[in-house]
Sequence to fold (414 residues):
Amino acid sequence: MRGPQLKWVAMALAAWVGVAAPVIAQTSTGSIRVIVTDADGGALPGVTVSAETVDSVVRRTATTGTGGDALLPALDPSDKYVVTCTLSGFNGSRNERVLVTSGQQTTLRVTLQLAEITEEVTVVADTPLVDVTSAVIGQDITLELTENLPTGRSYQSYLQLVPGVAPDMGSGNPAARSGLNYADIGGTMGTSADNFYYIEGINVTDGVTGTFGANLNTEIIQEQKVLTGGIPAEFVGAPGLVSSVITKSGGSSFSGSVSYSREDDSLVADNENSPDAKFERDDYALTLGGPIVGDRAWFFASYREVNRSEDITTLDTGEFLRTVDREDEQGFAKVSWAISDSQNVSGTFLNDPTTISGSTSRTVVSNRDRAQDQGGDRYIANYTGIFGPVVVSLAGGKHNGEVSLFAASRDVLN
Fold:
């Protein structure tokens, strides 16, 4: 079955009237609201507020109004933002490690002291994780979280970190409280076809099976936002959980990684039901990111290859049926360009060709076995521009998905 799909994701237009207006949730960016006061608690207008991070080319600058607050919109997710506040006659302020997550507003309160002694106050503290302006239920799976926890090497396995998400029993498409659990209708426990999956704001959900329609190297993930309740109207027709992946952008200096992992039957306990069955899995991945033009244009690229070989035996007698080989290739490239402090664009390419030599189901006999090719190419473009109180976000993408079944090439057992 071939199903190339062309999905042009919405052109979203969001407007803020004044800096105190509520922020409209967005799929791939967040915002910081800075409230500045003096030592007596009075609002300070005219303060220059700026935010930047080593994870993104996006920079924002604003000036506080009569209420002493300023809004820095359309920021890429990161937990390394540095927010500075300056005003003539006052000591400056520098807040480090400010967290920004997609679709949420971070509120930062800053107090400036009169400049009797010239000094800059630096604050390094964890940012509050609760956005009191939103009723959305879910969790932000940040880069810091995944790098410090033992997890599976797929963005589907990260869903298990979210409260209220059921174990998926190996399907990679788990049920949440907001969606239909197939066990309720006699199906597989913990599996749902109600979920929606987004990458860089583009819907990559398989329209036929209701499962994820793309795989990727987890080392390219900057943030994965998972919504399980109070899902905004922008995710039209999403009754289950929503997974939205935002990818890395590179940096102002070159950096990369090389990784390799291996699993095989000698590293796990013996299978009592099939003691002679063998398996092995090799996982290679590399990444590279850096500047193209100083602090204005960055790139990030990755390649991953996963090879798995697994013996399939009958459930009752343990008789050998076949060896199934699976080869996954996952390529990624992204270029981000800050045209100015108020306009930025990015282009992303992602693919995941996969070849599977047969079925891993023990109930499928060899003369009915089928090999499978799947995967496809995705092209994504994003633009964000700030024009006074108006923020314009445009996104377009092409998602090609394929699943092809054909007769397995092997000898049939008698």
